[in-house]
Amino acid sequence: MGSQPTDTKRRYEYELGHTDRELRRLATQAALVEPFTRSYLQRAGVSQGMRVLDVGSGAGDVAFLAADLVGPAGEVVGTDRSPTAVVAATARAKEHLLSNVGFVEGDPAKLTFDVPFDAIVGRYVLMFSPDPVEMLRGMTRHLRPGGVIVFHEVDWTGAGSFPPAPTYDRCFRYIVETFHKVGTNPYMGLRLHAAFIEAGLPAPTMAVSALAGGGSDGLSGIDLISDLAVTMAPVMEQTGVINALDLQPESLQERIREEATTNGSVVVGRYEVGAWARLTGSSPARQ
Ligand SMILES: C[S@@+](CC[C@H](N)C(=O)[O-])C[C@H]1O[C@@H](n2cnc3c(N)ncnc32)[C@H](O)[C@@H]1O
Known about the structure:
The chain is of the alpha/beta class. Helix content is 40%, strand content 20%. The structure holds S-adenosylmethionine.
């Protein structure tokens, strides 16, 4: 079971950044994990005609997914505190001719909106917050009574390879160690249950999924982990976790695939955790 970061102070505003490469990585990652997020949103009750707030929208993929679920009669507002992300997501919405999605810059826990939302959704965002409970409390102000809140966060507790592919195992250990060093919680997924309750929300319904497969499997998530390690390599070096060159980023993915194939390993990705709850009119979160 994972532990909490020992130093919860954030040393990086957001260690993954918003370079073109990172925005592309988010979109590639989104395609792999989309079925999990779609299932969590649907099971939470996100459906036709709803007005949805997407928290930490990045390149916009969760907002686009929500837009598909709410249809033309619904509306999605994506939020991100990074102006670069908002510009990129807005451009992609235009490219895909999506007229029911818009993006605004800011932290939704602090923003104000004229009309309350029927649903609040978010993926891979609470893990970066120094106080996810406070963030949940802040955003819940925008939810109407009876509205739903659903988060998809990762938890690295279960990641590993069986039998071991040592380069893969080292790679995800470096990622987890770097997250700890910068104050990001790699175990936010399984922490969602307590965070909802502490924020005054009902205890959530939860589900866990994971990508898994062999070295030759394109959907095994090897690309996802190796891409993330390459993105994080400069921060790994700055925080003293590893010399970025030792990671040999340009051949990392290929080496993991070869090793997993040679060793007959099944590579299991991080847990993709969903948690959702429906607000009651009398929930303390609204008082
Ligand atoms: C890992 S990305 C995930 C993007 C998107 N949700 C997805 O799953 O593809 C996290 C995003 O959350 C944004 N973010 C982090 N903390 C935030 C906050 N407190 N308010 C608004 N955006 C935030 C970051 O700027 C970044 O774009």
